[in-house]
TrEMBL record:
It comes from Mycobacterium asiaticum. This is Acyl-CoA dehydrogenase. It holds the Pfam family Acyl-CoA_dh_1. PANTHER family: MEDIUM-CHAIN SPECIFIC ACYL-COA DEHYDROGENASE, MITOCHONDRIAL, MEDIUM-CHAIN SPECIFIC ACYL-COA DEHYDROGENASE, MITOCHONDRIAL-RELATED. Residues 121-243 form the Acyl-CoA dehydrogenase/oxidase C-terminal domain. One of its GO terms (biological process) is fatty acid beta-oxidation using acyl-CoA dehydrogenase. Keywords: FAD, Flavoprotein, Oxidoreductase.
Amino acid sequence: MSVTDSDELQLIAGSLRTAMTGTAGAKLDAALTELGWLDMLDEIPQAAIRLVFGSLGETGAHAPVLNDVVLRAAGKPGGGTLALPVAGGSWVVWERTDEPTSALDEELPIRRTAAGEPVPLGQGRVALGWWLVGTGRAMLSLARQHALDRVQFGRPLASFQAVRHRLAETLVALEGAEATLQAAADQPDELACLLAKAAAGQAALTAARHCQQVLGGIGFTAEHPLHRHIKRALVLDGLLGSSRELTREAGSILRAKGFAPRLAHL
């Protein structure tokens, strides 16, 4: 990537974060369209997916743009909706409205629907992977700041080894998930995308567990933002296959192949 390309991506990232600050749902969907999200998805799909979905995770915003990624991968125009598989064999539609219908995450307009037509899920799984990693990083940032600010027994919470281990394990999980997502972007195929989504889901769940422990009682309150990220991680992990389901599916693929293909060149 040239310096100019890098500078342009930095400008795009700044514009995305500005658009996502205090905006979500249908308004953010419209703002992303105005910023040229669909054009970026056609011209620089991997960079666009990483920037948009990573930013959604880190800011806590939401928009129904997963529809666009899956539709484009199926050779259809963006801007619409379609049925998406979810953990447990069910199907849902992520509406492009501001009417929340998800029982778990009350901010998301997701409703159950009848089974849809089979569509390519690889790029959608990568997109959700970046969203999950961004959500995990948001949780890690909250826990880290709490550990630095909180004082117990006359010492900063961050000075306790158990706390530092939990934060370190979270960071390692998120960095590892990013590596698998990048590998899937460099060499996209069904197995690489599947494993990347599974790794990202597991990393986000690890972040939720460890960061909840670091934050202690305040992390359970509705006043603290952590619970929003945990709910979001649980919903996103289930979409297009949960980390547990995808791990089992990967095992079935490898058994059928009879060997483990190289997914990344080190």
